Amino acid sequence: MKRRSRLSRSRDFDAVYRHGRSVSSRYLVLYSFPRESADDLPRLGLAVSRKIGDAVARNRVKRSLRASFDALADEIGAGFDYVLVVRPGFGEVADARGAGWVAEQVREVFRQAAGARAARP
């Protein structure tokens, strides 16, 4: 994932949390917020709390989520900012089930977000 495709500033995260829409699954919550410029690549911010584990475990989770996001880049709508929040328990299950499971979980919340956008009038 290119650095340009990441949310890094606190104000960007706040805008997505305050004004964005959210969808959730058992282990992930995805907030999405449209940007003014619809031509830009989608940007992703990750929120992984210390409840997930130590720094090594959190960074492993973040790497797997970024890789899954990169794999879905063609399917994800341009011009959106996303924040992916990881719920407790995700790290252990991800370690047990592997990268394919992580990719499927990420794909599912992005599908839900696209469906929610399409259902909105």
What does this protein look like?
With 121 residues, the chain is an alpha+beta fold. Helix content is 46%, strand content 20%. It has four helices and four strands. The protein has helices spanning 10-19, 55-71, 90-97, 99-119; strands spanning 21-24, 28-34, 43-48, 80-86. A four-stranded mixed sheet has the order 1-2-4-3, with helices on both faces. A hairpin with a 3-residue loop joins β1 and β2. The chain is globular and about 40 Å long. The model has no long low-confidence stretch (mean pLDDT 89).
| Top-tier CATH class | Alpha Beta
What is the mean pLDDT?
Answer: 89
Terminal residue distance: 33 Å
SS summary, helix count: 4
Q: Please tell me the CATH architecture by its name.
A: 2-Layer Sandwich
Helix content estimate: 40-55%
- Helix and strand content put the structural class at alpha+beta
Sum up the overall morphology in one term: globular
Per DSSP, what share of the residues sits in E-state strands of 2 or more residues? 15-25%
Number of strands: 4
Biggest sheet strand order reads 1-2-4-3
Strand count, sense and closure of the main sheet?
4 strands, mixed
CATH topology: Ribosomal Protein S5, domain 2
What is the helix/strand order? HEEEHEHH
Topology, please?
Blueprint: H1 10-19, E1 21-24, E2 28-34, E3 43-48, H2 55-71, E4 80-86, H3 90-97, H4 99-119
Parallel strand pairs: 3-4
Antiparallel strand pairs: 1-2, 2-4
